[in-house]
Design brief:
Radius of gyration: 26 Å
Helix content: 10-25%
């Protein structure tokens, strides 16, 4: 039996556009392409080899229980899956591969159906500096369902400079257990669900013997807008050292960000001409569970509600000034429409923004797909039951008819210009009003 699950099960590790002249297409009863937060993640972090020359690649995999088929064993539930991690060099030659079986045993029904349950695994590969492709394949042993991910990583030569930084690993939690520091990796790049602060882990390779360094961490948005800056002076160990920085991000606006860490000698930290000791960077994101990955702009996410928001609701959303106020207003808007408020996902929100994304992929023309007439109808009513296309009529302009059987209604779109710009010729709002009443 299949159960839907979700986010992060803490794993504790001891610290060591469209073509303009083509008509738009809609799938009859088509599936949405992105239903929000994924349940499968892979993160690849490169470090210097623990001993001797060379480097090491650590591969972390997080698999949500919703992707597993649990089998009842007595009063509890078990699941198992095969996992293969393959390492290819820049010529696409296989240089290393690891295959094994993971098991999840003795799980209660509540745990198997939990939205916060995942399985996290890690494997390490010894590599030389260079560019590699990591391919992950997972096969559920009960259902036979397979999933695949791929990621390219560049491994630097950590032995060459007299000071170097490893890649950055995101952490969701740092704790002390029996006097030992433990960390919980955040395999997902999404830090938007980690309250108030997250942490990063990285290693410094200090062959020059510097006794301290100023670490400057910046989170920069797509418009080169600085969202968070952390500046701290840290004592250094000779050789390899492990360092954890706390990042009090507050509430980041929705979007993708570049996280950059620069190490400098403290005396030269404010000298713009001084060369940094080393730097490391990675991409992170801020999203809500349930929002498709395509939703990266908070103002745009609010504007896209024009088809379903009432006038007073839209006014309230647009009156919000700060990013935090906008996020609160957006959350309140969708909370009222959540069909299952006791679960972390909001299926109505997922479906709506999934339709927006589908419209952008299939109906974009001179404008974004969600703004077109076809996009509007698709977002409001979903996939039609039948599409009657007439792109090459002799005695009329190209047109399409979308039929919705449950509405007992059809919408007619006509390409008045001959360039694929289909405009709605039949009214939509009276149908929408009838549905809402």
């Amino acid at each position: 039996m299949n159960h839907r699950g979700g986010f992060l099960l803490a794993l504790f590790l001891t610290c060591s556009g469209s073509v303009a002249n083509l008509p738009a297409q809609v799938e009859v009863n088509g599936n949405l392409t992105d239903r929000g937060e994924s349940s499968l993640y892979m993160d690849v972090i490169s470090f210097a080899a623990t001993s001797g020359p060379g480097s090491r690649v650590d591969v972390f995999v997080q698999l949500g229980y919703e992707m597993l088929s649990f089998v009842k064993q007595g009063d509890l539930y078990d699941a198992s899956y095969e996992m293969t991690i393959s390492l290819f060099d820049s010529t696409n030659a296989l240089i290393s591969e690891k295959l094994w079986t993971e098991s999840v045993k003795g799980v209660t029904f509540e745990r198997s159906a939990s939205a916060n349950a995942s399985s996290i695994t890690q494997r390490s590969f010894a590599v030389a500096p260079g560019t590699y492709t990591i391919r992950l394949a997972i096969r559920d042993k009960e259902s036979g369902t397979s999933h695949m991910l791929s990621k390219t990583v560049h491994v630097q030569d950590f032995s060459a400079p007299d000071f170097a930084l490893s890649d950055i690993m995101l952490l969701s939690r740092v704790a002390s257990v029996a006097g030992k520091r433990t960390i919980a990796p955040s395999v997902s790049p999404n830090v938007g669900t980690i309250a108030e602060a997250f942490w990063i882990y990285l290693e410094a390779y200090n062959k020059r013997g510097a006794d301290s360094a100023r670490f400057t961490l910046d989170i920069v948005g797509g418009k080169d807008e600085h969202q968070v800056t952390v500046d701290t002076v840290t004592a250094l160990k000779p050789g390899r050292g492990e360092y954890i920085l706390r990042v009090p991000h507050g509430i980041l606006p929705l979007g993708d960000y570049r996280l950059l860490v620069v190490a400098r000698l403290p005396a030269s930290a404010h000298d713009s001409t001084a060369r940094p000791l080393a730097s490391a960077g990675r991409i992170i994101s801020a999203r809500w569970v349930g929002l498709p990955r395509s939703v990266k702009d908070l103002d745009l996410a609010i504007e896209q509600l024009r088809y379903i928001a009432k006038d007073d609701e839209m006014s309230k959303l647009k009156d919000a000034k700060t990013a935090e106020e906008k996020m609160v207003a957006l959350a309140e808007f969708w909370k009222k429409r959540d069909p299952n408020p006791n679960t972390p996902r909001n299926e109505k929100m997922e479906e709506y923004y999934g339709r927006v994304e589908y419209a952008n992929k299939h109906f974009s023309h001179y404008m974004d797909g969600w703004r077109t007439d076809m996009g509007m109808v698709y977002i409001m009513f979903g996939s039609p039951n039948n599409v009657d296309r007439h792109p090459f009529e002799v005695d009329s302009k190209p047109y399409e008819i979308w039929a919705y059987y449950d509405l007992n209604y059809s919408f007619v779109f006509i390409d008045q210009t001959g360039f694929g710009d289909y405009r709605l010729e039949t009214p939509v709002w009276e149908v929408w009003s009838r549905m809402r009443n």
